[in-house]
Automatic annotation (TrEMBL):
<protein>
    <submittedName>
        <fullName>RNA polymerase subunit sigma</fullName>
    </submittedName>
</protein>
<dbReference type="InterPro" id="IPR013325">
    <property type="entry name" value="RNA_pol_sigma_r2"/>
</dbReference>
<dbReference type="InterPro" id="IPR032710">
    <property type="entry name" value="NTF2-like_dom_sf"/>
</dbReference>
<dbReference type="InterPro" id="IPR052704">
    <property type="entry name" value="ECF_Sigma-70_Domain"/>
</dbReference>
Amino acid sequence: MDQGDAVPIAELWEERRYLLDVAHWMLGDPGAAEAVVDEAYLRWYGLSGAVRRQVAVPRSWLAKTVGGICLGRLALPGRDATGHAAGHGGPREAEEEAGRVVLTALESLSTAERAAFVFRAFGTASGTAADIVGRTERELAELAARARQLVQSQRNRSTAPHQHDAVVRAVHRACLTEDGELLTSLLCPDVTAFFDGGGKIRALTGPLHGSRPVADNLLTLLARRPHTTLSTRSVNGRTGLVARYGRQVTAVISLDVANDRVAHFWVMLNPDKLRPWNRSPTDGGTRPDTRP
């Protein structure tokens, strides 16, 4: 997927479910199937942007890749279908709000921005950091500055709760009615949206800037399709948006509001990070705060 493209969330999750079905059918093990699909998405993101643009039907490419990985696992002598892939547990939740907010902000940065921020924070020499990130020293400085501003904006939320709630509910109405003009009017001109797919679902791979591009991409992502719903819920202690496909939570969206306009969207699409939202009370865990 390219930076300017967007795909309805229903298509993204139908694609992943289809790939899981293919892998499960071939291997007979749901855990192994998920590992194979994750590996296929890793290979997709391992392609250069130019190569990805040449793939006419990404779903077919991914299905072929899944099939090849499964055949490779089945052909391994002395091993079962699960191979040696290990599961990944989620990071421990930060005990203080400041720490949690900073971690969320860093996760939402592009790879280059996150690397620039971390390298600068730990005092890595500019020339060395620039070589690692693959940017010039001037570009590195700009990336680090942008990342620092974004992290600070997450730490300094000053909008009153009732103002924040009113803006988010207006955004919700605009998305439900697919009103692009209304949604654009609710965003800061320089609004930025971040999409975290974790490399496990086709999502935008970097930040998107500007009220019109952000509005258009969000409306496409959250397009009304059969079995899709969008509701307001408490996300990290403030009103946010939760999208579902059927009974599955497929996206959790946090918003930063400044001067009665949305300054940042943080769109969580990573299936691993959405597991707590899909955990039933009988699983023995506590669900995230979902109070209106």
